[in-house]
């Protein structure tokens, strides 16, 4: 019987799973700490700003934004409420659907993202890519792409929902 049939993980599978969880927790913890220390910006807020800067007109319906970030709908609502208070985003009624609400990136939010992006990207280099060869980076992208909804390659955006051009923020 295979692991899929028994629901029991082999030693190698369990090691891979636990290492993946530990690596994710450690890397995101370090990235979060660096963003907070340098820009007083939590990683989920950075993620919201990144999705908004890449969206047409720098706006997304709240439901669409919730689907893109790693938060529950209620968690996203609380986060966006806080970001509105901080002046990073605004809520605007959807012109085509009175029941819908958009989260819209403000000029302050864009400035915060531009200031935070070099910190975040350097953290990705320090904690991930500098520890791997170019071939390993490609392999990691391919392997993780298999775990992302939508296919083996993770899509043109690398499976993160953000095109590679997002780093430029131009």
Question: Can you put this structure into words, describing what you see?
Answer:
The protein is 58% helix and 11% strand. A hairpin with a 2-residue loop joins β2 and β3. It has a single domain, classed as Arc Repressor Mutant, subunit A (Orthogonal Bundle). With 170 residues, the chain is mainly alpha-helical. Strands 1-3-2 form a 3-stranded antiparallel β-sheet.
Notable features of this structure?
three-stranded antiparallel beta sheet, single chain, 170 residues, mainly alpha, 11% strand, Arc Repressor Mutant, subunit A
Task: Summarize this entry quickly.
The protein has 170 residues and is mainly alpha-helical. It has helices spanning 3-6, 11-39, 43-54, 62-68, 73-85, 107-127, 134-145; strands at residues 59-61, 89-94, 97-105. A hairpin with a 2-residue loop joins strand 2 and strand 3 (97-105).
């Amino acid at each position: 019987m295979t692991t899929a049939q028994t629901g029991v993980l082999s030693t190698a599978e369990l090691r891979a799973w636990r290492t993946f969880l530990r690596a994710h927790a450690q890397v995101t913890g370090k990235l979060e700490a660096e963003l907070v220390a340098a820009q007083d910006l939590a990683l989920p807020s950075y993620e919201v700003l990144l999705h908004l800067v890449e969206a047409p007109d720098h706006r997304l319906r709240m439901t669409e934004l919730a689907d893109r970030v790693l938060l529950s709908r209620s968690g996203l609502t609380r986060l966006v409420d806080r970001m509105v208070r901080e002046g990073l985003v605004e809520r605007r009624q959807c012109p085509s659907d009175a029941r819908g609400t958009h989260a819209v990136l403000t000029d302050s939010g864009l400035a915060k993202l531009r200031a935070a992006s070099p910190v975040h990207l350097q953290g990705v280099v320090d904690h991930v890519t500098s520890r791997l060869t170019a071939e390993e980076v490609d392999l990691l992208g391919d392997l993780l792409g298999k775990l992302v909804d939508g296919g083996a390659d993770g899509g043109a955006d690398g499976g993160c929902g953000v095109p590679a051009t997002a780093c430029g923020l131009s």
